[in-house]
């Protein structure tokens, strides 16, 4: 699908040079292989023989660029001239430096003898394949607006080095080279392969600067513009793009008829309000796109064969740019977009669609024919040409074929603005994953027909990994607003609404109000939502003047917009109490939508999936609870009313396919947590049918919703904390008791055949996994409600709470993917404790600032249920250390694997000491190996001296308990000797009894060795 590269002769002809002369040069530089002279050799000889003509024609062509541009008719012709001029200076720079470079031979002496001809024909030395073709169709690196200019120079230097290397390899087979002394041959090699390419790059840079004087587009190709404007003068609505491109466009055949009608339709978008006229609260005035659209910051990068633009890490090292106008000016005037579309990515609400609208409005005056296609509104199963024609008909009301439309544009270049590729992917699955390839093929066909087109495709970043990216694809990602951009946006908003706000007794919108909620304000559409929320009379501060926290703001936002939609649809026919009920019903429906996404492990849900979920939940809810009402038949239309729900759609086989997504993922997370906590509160209203009966609690809906996915990501835990905090202390305590009861009832009963909501199945999952996820969620909710709980509280029917906790962690671990298990484990702090009835655990949530807190040492007293002594030592040995190793290997995960890998040398060398424990004295019981490692790693004397002495005593007692093992003793002896030598000064007068104790604990064969090593402690002569 790539374009045919220009040859040097092609470029010369485009720039006005004589075709016969240029044909001679082309044959010299890149003719067919000549077998009689060794193929490539003839090309090199021809090239060298024509170097004077190459230089003359090349310099004349470069000088003629200005005149040729002034006579160019249309943007496509101008771009071809720019490409030709660049091709010429690439070759010209090399030949100028080649002509000037001093070598120990003359190029005129480079000719083939008959013997050399025959040797080259036989293949010695091998002909450097491709030199003639490389020079004929110049494939040298070309500046591109997504690349730093310095990178282009480096790549061009490598290209020149390749040419120099091929020429050198050709010369090495000639007599003129063989007659040179070895030193001169080496010097000539260095000159041609190193010095010549470096000087050629410098000459290229000089020639490129001259081109910039003739055509400003070259400046945009390299991104070397110096910007005087500061952030206080942020660019708006790509206004400068129109000025930059229009100044260099000359159309002898301006657009007419259908093309002019389409341009008028696009340009009208600038004067439209950013939302529908009936959307803002009463009295508010919505700014137009022209007034409020700010050029966003962005990142841009070429996409390789195995790259994943959906991965945040892939973008990590890419610098943020703020010159979108300049980048687009370069991209639209360089030949890169003639081959493949530019892929524009962004989060929901980042402004992708608006960007295409602004571009469509700005480009007509600059020699372009923009054709904007909202992919959601055209048939996905039609080919691209049909989709373009349908979009033109929708915009203008005229039926016009694509070729006719292009002809009506005169010499303007079509620009396809294909908005919403992600909607095709979401609604049709993998069927449209090759859409970008289809666009590139369409561009290839149009180029072959003499109708070159540029293309731009937008998509959500999250689904970019599901697309096939044609070779040469460049991805541009829109970045969130910075504070200075938000301030400028607020200023434009206030220009429209300040008078109305003040008249209603409200403050104007300010950065200070929005700063605590920057995460929402940095997305343009969500920033508009916050402005509407403020304009409706809502405050960003609580009654105490404190800024609303995240959960409080979400609650206020959701209620505000839901109330507005209810009022809009019902008018004044409802009492306030009924309005509140309808508002809550709307939010509950949205919460089911949130669970539909959460329980499928993604941030969107199709309309079919949503219909299934709503039917499964609401189909039984009328019989079971008054808190939910049967949903409206038009559930999709109801959802579509909400500002913060984005609807994606496409049309296939005449059917409109839809999917839904929250503008920000945190809306869905908050709604899911909100409904889960509501269902906990609902447990307070449980009334058994008969007094004193053991009727189970009704947690059917809670189980249906929270048994497919965990609720303990960091963000969801923050929301859950806030929702729980709204309950009174008494309510939290009672609910926690009920949740523990639910947990116990679900664990002891087989309710698989009796469960309600049997058709609610957002994804296939084993019953055991659902029970595990539900159990983990309930435990986390109990901890949230109580602040801290115990294993005995969670498992009241178990004799050994420690064992019950361990058994459940195995269930949770088996039910959760690795990342979600990590979220669960990292959310909790667990302390092992003992009380009068035995062992237990204290469980609490980790605080936000607990990231550096180390887990406590697990007390072996607790693990083995050994009663600790207040004074003295208690030691014991477990004989099955080797079994532990093999059991750990049986079900090893990533975390366990790392720990087992660390432990393997210890188990192999000191196995019995791994399971020999020493406790008592009010300290946790630890193994001998644990104490040895503490001593060995205390090289910096971090431990107090008293603790060091205790560790030595514990090691001695533990080794003695483990019993004599000659193999272990031999491995242990050198370590003990080295440690005592290191710590002699710290041990002081305790050194001798410590050594005696250590020696006594070793097998008899080793005691004497240790005594001799430390003979000075016993007053014996050393040696």
At a glance:
Helices cover 55% and strands 9% of the residues. The chain is built from 46 helices and 15 strands.
Describe it for me?
- With 1023 residues, the chain is of the alpha/beta class.
- Helix content is 55%, strand content 9%.
- The longest helix has 33 residues, at 182-214.
- Residues 31-39, 120-135, 227-232 and 620-634 have low confidence and may be disordered.
SSE class:
alpha/beta
Report the biggest beta sheet as strand number plus sense, adding barrel if it closes.
6 strands, mixed
Enumerate the spans where pLDDT stays under 50 for 5 or more consecutive residues.
Answer: 31-39, 120-135, 227-232, 620-634
The helical percent reads 55-70%
The total count of strands amounts to 15
Topology:
Layout: H1 8-14, H2 19-30, H3 40-49, H4 51-63, H5 65-70, H6 75-100, H7 114-121, H8 131-136, H9 149-171, H10 175-178, H11 182-214, H12 217-222, H13 239-246, H14 258-267, H15 289-292, E1 298-302, H16 312-315, H17 324-333, E2 342-346, H18 352-362, E3 368-374, H19 384-396, H20 402-408, E4 413-419, H21 421-428, H22 435-448, E5 454-460, E6 474-478, H23 483-503, H24 511-514, H25 518-521, H26 524-535, H27 550-570, H28 576-598, E7 605-606, H29 607-624, H30 635-640, E8 645-652, E9 655-662, H31 665-682, H32 700-706, H33 714-725, H34 729-748, H35 767-786, E10 788-790, H36 791-794, H37 801-815, H38 818-827, E11 828-835, E12 838-845, H39 860-864, E13 874-877, H40 881-890, H41 894-914, E14 916-920, E15 923-927, H42 928-936, H43 945-962, H44 966-987, H45 991-1001, H46 1004-1013
Parallel strand pairs: 2-5, 2-6, 3-4, 4-5
Antiparallel strand pairs: 1-6, 7-9, 8-9, 10-12, 11-12, 13-14, 14-15
Helix pairs in contact: 1-2, 1-6, 2-3, 4-6, 6-11, 9-11, 13-17, 14-18, 27-28, 28-29, 28-31, 31-33, 34-35, 35-37, 40-41, 41-44, 42-43, 43-45, 44-45, 44-46, 45-46
């Amino acid at each position: 699908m790539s374009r045919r590269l220009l040859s040097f002769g092609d470029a010369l002809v485009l720039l006005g040079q004589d075709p016969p002369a240029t044909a001679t040069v082309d044959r010299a530089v890149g003719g067919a292989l000549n077998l009689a002279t060794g193929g490539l050799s003839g090309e090199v000889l021809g090239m060298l023989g024509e170097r004077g003509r190459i230089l003359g024609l090349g310099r004349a062509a470069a000088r003629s660029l200005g005149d040729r541009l002034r006579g160019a008719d249309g943007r496509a012709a101008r771009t071809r001239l720019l490409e030709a001029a660049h091709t010429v200076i690439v070759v010209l720079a090399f030949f100028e430096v080649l002509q000037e470079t001093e070598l120990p031979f003359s190029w005129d002496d480079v000719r083939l003898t008959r013997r050399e001809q025959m040797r080259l024909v036989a293949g010695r030395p091998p002909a450097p394949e491709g030199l003639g073709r490389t020079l004929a169709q110049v494939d040298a690196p070309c500046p591109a607006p997504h690349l730093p200019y310095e990178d282009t120079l480096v790549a061009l230097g490598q290209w020149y080095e390749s040419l120099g290397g091929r020429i050198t390899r050709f010369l090495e087979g000639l007599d003129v080279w063989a007659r040179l002394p070895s030193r001169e041959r080496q010097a000539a090699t260095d000159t041609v392969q190193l010095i010549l390419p470096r000087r050629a790059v410098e000459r290229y840079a000089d020639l490129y600067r001259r081109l910039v004087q003739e055509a400003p587009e070259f400046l945009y190709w390299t991104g070397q513009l110096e910007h005087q404007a500061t952030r206080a003068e942020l660019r708006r609505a790509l206004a400068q793009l129109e000025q930059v491109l229009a100044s260099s466009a000359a159309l002898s055949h301006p657009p007419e008829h259908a093309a002019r009608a389409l341009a008028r339709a696009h340009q009208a978008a600038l004067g439209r309000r950013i939302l529908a006229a009936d959307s803002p609260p009463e009295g508010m005035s919505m700014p137009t796109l022209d007034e409020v659209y700010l050029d966003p910051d962005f990142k841009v990068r070429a996409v390789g064969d195995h790259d994943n633009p959906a991965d945040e890490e892939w973008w990590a090292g890419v610098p943020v740019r703020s010159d979108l106008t300049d980048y687009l000016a370069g991209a639209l005037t360089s030949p890169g977009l003639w081959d493949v579309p530019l892929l524009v990515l962004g989060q929901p609400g980042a402004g992708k669609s608006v960007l295409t609208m602004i571009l469509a409005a700005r480009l007509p005056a600059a020699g372009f024919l923009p054709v904007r296609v909202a992919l959601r509104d055209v048939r996905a199963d039609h080919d691209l040409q049909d989709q373009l024609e349908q979009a033109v008909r929708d915009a203008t009301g005229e039926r016009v074929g694509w070729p006719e439309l292009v002809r009506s544009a005169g010499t303007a270049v079509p620009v396809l603005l294909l908005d919403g590729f992600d909607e095709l992917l979401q609604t049709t699955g993998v069927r449209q994953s090759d859409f970008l390839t289809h666009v590139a093929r369409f561009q290839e066909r149009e180029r072959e027909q003499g109708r070159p087109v540029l293309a731009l495709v937008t998509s959500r970043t999250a689904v970019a990994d599901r697309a096939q990216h044609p070779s040469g694809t460049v991805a541009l990602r829109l970045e969130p607003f910075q504070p200075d951009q938000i301030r400028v946006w607020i200023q434009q908003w206030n220009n429209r609404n300040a008078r109305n706000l003040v008249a209603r007794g409200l403050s104007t919108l300010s950065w200070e109000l929005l700063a605590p909620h920057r995460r929402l304000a940095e997305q343009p559409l969500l920033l508009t939502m916050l402005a509407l929320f403020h304009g409706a009379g809502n405050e960003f501060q609580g009654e105490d003047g404190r800024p609303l926290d995240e959960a409080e703001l979400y609650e206020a936002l959701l209620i505000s917009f839901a109330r507005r939609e209810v009022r809009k649809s019902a008018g004044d026919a409802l009492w306030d109490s009924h309005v509140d009920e309808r508002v809550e019903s709307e939010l509950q429906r949205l919460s089911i939508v949130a669970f539909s996404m959460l329980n499928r492990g993604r941030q969107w849900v199709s309309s079919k999936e949503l219909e299934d979920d709503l039917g499964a939940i609401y189909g039984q809810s009328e019989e079971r609870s008054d808190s939910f009402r049967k949903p409206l038949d038009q559930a999709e239309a109801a959802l579509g009313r909400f500002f913060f729900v984005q609807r994606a759609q496409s049309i296939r086989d005449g059917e409109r396919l839809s999917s839904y997504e929250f503008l920000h993922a945190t809306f869905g997370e908050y709604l899911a947590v909100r409904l889960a906590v509501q269902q906990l509160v609902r447990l307070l209203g449980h009334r058994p049918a008969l007094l004193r009966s053991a009727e189970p609690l009704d947690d059917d809906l809670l189980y249906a919703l929270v048994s497919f996915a965990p609720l303990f990501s960091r963000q969801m835990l923050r929301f859950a904390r806030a929702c729980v905090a709204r309950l009174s202390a008494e309510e939290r305590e009672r609910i926690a008791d009920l949740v523990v009861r639910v947990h116990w009832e679900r664990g002891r009963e087989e309710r698989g055949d009796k469960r309600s909501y049997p058709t609610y199945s957002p994804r296939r999952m084993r019953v055991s996994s659902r029970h595990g996820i539900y159990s983990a969620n309930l435990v986390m909710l109990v901890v949230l409600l109580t602040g801290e709980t115990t294993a005995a509280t969670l498992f009241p029917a178990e004799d050994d709470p420690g064992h019950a906790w361990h058994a459940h962690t195995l269930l949770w671990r088996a039910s959760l993917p690795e990342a979600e298990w990590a979220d669960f484990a990292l959310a909790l702090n667990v302390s092992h404790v003992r009380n009068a009835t035995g062992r237990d655990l204290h469980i609490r949530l980790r605080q936000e600032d607990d990231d550096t807190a180390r887990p406590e040492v697990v007390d072996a007293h607790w693990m083995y249920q050994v009663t600790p002594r207040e004074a003295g030592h208690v030691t014991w040995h477990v004989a099955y250390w080797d079994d532990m190793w093999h059991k750990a290997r049986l079900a090893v995960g990533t975390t366990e694997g790392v720990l087992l890998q660390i432990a393997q040398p210890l188990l192999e060398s000191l196995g019995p000491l791994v399971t020999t424990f020493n406790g008592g004295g009010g300290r946790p019981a630890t193994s001998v190996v644990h104490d040895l490692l503490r001593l060995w790693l205390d090289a910096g004397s971090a431990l107090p001296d008293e603790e060091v002495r205790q560790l030595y005593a514990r090691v001695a007692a533990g080794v003695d308990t483990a019993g004599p093992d000659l193999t272990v003793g031999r491995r242990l002896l050198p370590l003990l000797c080295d440690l005592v030598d290191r710590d002699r000064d710290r041990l002081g007068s305790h050194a001798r009894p410590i050594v005696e104790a250590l020696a006594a604990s070793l097998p008899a064969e080793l005691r004497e060795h240790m005594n001799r090593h430390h003979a000075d402690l016993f007053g014996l002569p050393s040696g």
